Recover the amino acids of this structure.
């Protein structure tokens, strides 16, 4: 008898396994779902003792999660090339748990059109369309993946 259940795809929940970013430029804490070349979701926990998280950094968080969704792997470089239709909240409060969700809309070689949104308690607080450029060797943008 054939099973109809689907096994969950295994992935590393640590964003540093995929991105060259490190503190203080890594804005996501944990990857919660990943379907390469399709979508990814990550958690961004705003520290409760934080004076405030600038809402514009939600775009960078979306770009980081989008780079992971685009299939960025260790040693690959990438840049946020453009964004449009960005809607940001007036503030992101200390202690908030932000789910950053991205979906690949289109792929043009090394360019990816990504739909991103940030959600707090099931409410969308930010959204944007991003264009990411991911280079398989990281050489074009001066990112070598060396640590």
């Amino acid at each position: 008898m054939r099973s109809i259940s689907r096994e969950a795809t295994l992935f590393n929940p640590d964003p540093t396994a995929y991105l060259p970013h490190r503190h203080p430029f890594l804005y996501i804490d944990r990857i919660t779902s990943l379907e390469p070349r399709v979508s990814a979701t990550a958690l961004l926990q705003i520290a409760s003792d934080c004076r405030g998280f600038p809402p514009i950094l939600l775009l960078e968080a979306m770009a980081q999660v989008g780079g992971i969704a685009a299939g960025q792997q260790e040693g690959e470089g990438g840049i946020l090339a453009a964004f449009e239709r960005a809607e940001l909240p007036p503030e992101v409060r200390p202690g908030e748990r932000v789910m950053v969700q991205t979906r690949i809309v289109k792929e043009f070689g090394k360019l990816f059109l990504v739909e991103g949104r940030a959600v707090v308690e099931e409410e969308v607080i930010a959204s944007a369309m991003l264009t990411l450029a991911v280079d398989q060797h990281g050489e074009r943008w001066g990112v070598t993946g060396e640590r």
